[in-house]
Write a structure and sequence with these properties.
The structure holds 2 protein chains of 2 kinds. Chain A is of the alpha+beta class. Chain A contains 4 helices and 11 strands; from the N terminus they run E-E-E-E-H-E-E-H-E-E-H-E-E-E-H. In chain B, 27% of the residues lie in helices and 41% in strands. Classes of the chains: A alpha+beta, B alpha+beta. At the A-B interface, strand 5, strand 6 and strand 9 of A face strand 5, strand 6 and helix 4 of B.
Chain lengths: 281, 308
């Protein structure tokens, strides 16, 4: 499969034949750092979630973000940012999970708690685990979950956006998906039974997964020659990103704080001197 | 290849006829030459990761830490004394569900008043005393156990096999005759029924340990009773690599030391040298006599001086 790989960050995306990228989607490196090469895809994506957020909504989310902190420089609003569509690889796993749990619930005895136990068998239609190589798990986690109910069959030829190539094997993804299913059930049992603590052992049945793609808007912008990356959730419009902090604003605030401290000190010392004067009379 | 049954320990060993060994690799007894009936197909073979030289080095290090072992044993650690044996194991994947009942204890703290004497005065103080609130609990536990190993060889009792473990069964390759060429490969001499019963007992014990260690809530527990249902999902026959050093002790007995062919773990009951034990006892007695004698002499001198 033909893909464009960045020599800077190693990120690779598949594009439609003949399509070019003006810069790396992940790190903003210029086109001169991008090379077209033949790459091995671990597994072909079978399904994808279409974009529900359009360009203008994504742009508005960024403008709002630039005004979200008083420490951001005032001219950040004027930063040039081009958000691009990107389909990020993920795995959708489903199956049946049998949970045997124990826990502690509040009680009106002397210890204030009492042990309880139970079990449940639940069918989990799908959990999504992202399998991006270039985006950090923490970034994707902060972006929020993707709605796995909105998956459609994927065809490479009709891809509405460049898609990142997955390098995560099925077995590694399965392990992560099982971890996510177990955590999900534990949280649910804890909330449902109002437990102070929950411990669980699980048996899994018919766990099966498919490689899928989920939509995000991605953009890198430069401010004082430093590159900042912004991600916008393609289904919810949630934004995750970093922005520079204005040195002038922080210096100003520091000075103001110092002046305030000085003023308070003067008041206290001045008041003390005044009191001493009265005392001596 | 032909199979040879050991009359002493019951092991049935496939021996390359070109390298026909006259003794059993497990217990060093002379081999009975007989052709075993149709062998059960082997699913996978884990190759040796330790060379004969590395295995003998492990054995030397192990033996040198055994002070009371007969000195003659050191010769066992010579590379030439070690035989490479592929030992058959049943490898179980099983789903185990366990019902348990016990008492779970949760700690709470009671403030207690007591009197004590400080600088000759009686004062009243308070302290926190830990108490336990016990509650009955019954529940279930379940999990899937992958690659649980049970020895399929009469030559390698389960207790010794457990000491040799863990083996990295992930390193096993699908069976191919080239994987066993030139190596002694034992055939299973323990049947499925017997091995399954062992697996049941071991998995039930593992479940109980896991429930006690990781499943029960609260601060402490007592009277844990469990009952497990083991459902075998898959069973495979694998050959695992073991270096064996056998040494006849006379009267039909043999000393046998094993080295895990993957990890270098050494297993085997090492006898004590009678001469060395006698010498040690004599040395201790001499030391005691010397110390007691010394005290008596010193005491005698002191009292003699005191009476002067």
């Amino acid at each position: 499969m033909r893909a464009i790989r960045c020599k800077g960050c190693g990120g690779a995306v598949a594009v439609r034949p003949g399509e070019k990228l003006p810069a790396c989607l992940f790190c903003g490196s210029p086109a001169s750092d991008l090379v077209e090469e033949e790459v091995e895809q671990v597994e072909q994506p079978e399904l994808f979630a279409p974009f529900a957020v359009e360009q203008d909504t994504a742009d508005t989310a960024f403008r709002k973000f630039t005004k979200s902190s008083i420490w951001y420089p005032s001219d950040l609003k004027r930063a040039r940012l081009e958000l691009k569509r990107l389909l990020v690889p993920a795995w959708a796993f489903g199956g049946r999970i049998e949970v045997h749990w124990t826990g502690l619930e509040r009680a009106s005895n002397r210890a204030g708690k009492r042990p309880v136990a139970g079990n449940e068998t639940v069918d989990i239609e799908q959990v999504l685990v992202t399998a991006s190589r270039s985006l950090r798990q923490a970034e994707l986690f902060r972006l929020g979950a993707f709605d796995e109910g909105k998956l459609e069959p994927f065809s490479r030829e009709e891809a509405s956006a460049p898609f990142e190539l997955s390098e995560m094997s099925r077995s590694a993804a399965k392990e992560r998906a099982i971890g996510a299913m177990e955590d999900h059930r534990k949280r649910s049992i804890q909330n449902q039974h109002g437990l102070l603590l929950v411990r669980a052992s699980t048996i899994l049945h018919h766990i099966a997964g498919r490689p899928v793609l989920v939509p995000i808007w991605i953009g890198a912008y430069r401010y004082n020659d430093v590159v900042y990356r912004i991600l916008v959730h393609g289904q919810t419009g949630a934004l995750v990103g970093k922005a520079p902090k204005s040195l002038w604003k922080m210096l100003g605030a520091g000075l103001l704080a110092l002046m305030l401290l000085g003023f308070i000190a003067m008041c206290v010392l001045g008041g003390g001197g005044f009191a001493a004067l009265i005392g001596s009379q | 290849m032909s199979a040879h049954q050991c009359p002493q320990c019951g092991a049935s060993v496939d021996v390359d006829t070109s390298k026909l060994s006259a003794t059993c690799a497990f217990c060093d007894s002379p081999l009975e030459v007989s052709t075993a009936e149709e062998a059960e197909p082997v699913d996978a073979v884990a190759p040796f990761q330790l060379t004969q030289e590395q295995a003998s080095q492990r054995l030397r290090t192990h033996l040198s830490s055994q002070w009371l072992a007969p000195s003659a044993l050191q010769k066992l650690a010579r590379p030439g004394e070690l035989n490479a044996v592929l030992v058959p194991f049943y490898r179980y994947d099983a789903t185990v569900r366990t019902q348990f009942s016990c008492s779970v204890g949760c700690y709470w703290y009671r403030t207690e008043t007591y009197t004590t004497t400080v600088n000759g005065k009686t004062v009243v103080r308070t302290r926190q005393v830990r108490e336990t609130e016990w509650s009955p609990l019954s529940g279930t536990h379940g999990r899937t156990w992958i690659d649980h190993l049970v020895s399929a060889s009469k030559g390698l009792p389960e207790s010794e096999a457990n000491q040799l473990e863990p083996f990295d069964v992930g390193a096993a390759l699908p069976f191919a005759p080239s994987l066993v060429a030139g190596i002694i490969a034992e055939r299973p001499t323990i049947g499925h029924t017997e091995a399954r019963a062992t697996a049941n007992n071991e998995l039930s014990a593992l479940e109980k340990r896991e429930i006690a260690g990781a499943h029960l809530p609260g601060d402490t527990h007592s009277g844990l009773k469990t009952s497990s249902q083991v459902q075998v999902d898959a069973v495979r026959l694998v050959l695992l690599p073991v270096w064996v050093a056998a040494y006849p002790l006379g009267k039909g007995k043999a000393l046998r030391l094993l080295v895990n062919g993957q990890t270098g773990e050494v297993v085997g009951k090492i006898p004590r040298s009678t001469t060395k034990v006698v010498l040690l006892v004599l040395a201790i007695i001499t030391a005691i006599v010397a110390v007691v004698g010394g005290f008596l002499v010193c005491g005698g001198l002191t009292s003699a001086l005191g009476s002067m």
